[in-house]
């Protein structure tokens, strides 16, 4: 009967929260928490917390299994609404002390932190803000902005420096 009372109070009691600074500090500590991203897989792949695990809220059994295996868990989603509902649901299931990121990944980005994305090849990389992730990288974007005469002047300068370096080595 005691377990039922705990679960009833978990419905009314808001789950604990962490802001972006607290989560950043916690991730830098010795006991880094397991970050469970409760969004669907497509949203997770497009941008997620570095080292997080995708645990969609629709698969409650798998989610509870991941919570059981981890020593410390923090829930995240886009804006904090979904993860707060999942934290409340986990409280009803007997896990009342699982925090969620207040403001979600939106607040994380606004505080100056970056997100990771998973490419089509399954590789992890930082999310490119305002650009095409499959487009040119930073060097390609730089070269696209440089006009012809400036590019050739830089190329000639680099060739001259290499020539001087080669002459000094051969002496």
Summarize this structure briefly.
By secondary structure, this protein is mainly alpha-helical. 50% of the residues lie in helices and 12% in strands.
How would the blueprint of this fold be written?
Elements (H helix, E strand, L loop, with lengths): L1 H11 L4 E2 L1 H8 L6 E4 L3 H6 L6 E2 L5 H10 L3 E4 L4 H12 L7 E2 L2 H7 L5 E3 L5 E3 L11 H8 L2 H23 L1
Parallel strand pairs: 1-5, 2-3, 2-4
Antiparallel strand pairs: 6-7
Task: Please supply descriptive tags for the structure shown above.
3-stranded parallel beta sheet, mainly alpha, 7 strands, Oxidized Rhodanese, domain 1
Walk me through this protein's architecture.
This protein has 171 residues and is mainly alpha-helical. It has 8 helices and 7 strands.
Label the CATH architecture of the largest domain. 3-Layer(aba) Sandwich
Distance between the termini: 90 Å
The Cα radius of gyration reads 24 Å
Given helix and strand content, the structural type is mainly alpha
Q: H/E order of the elements?
A: HEHEHEHEHEHEEHH
| Beta-strand fraction estimate | 5-15%
Major beta sheet summary: 3 strands, parallel
- As laid out across the biggest beta sheet, the strand order is 3-2-4
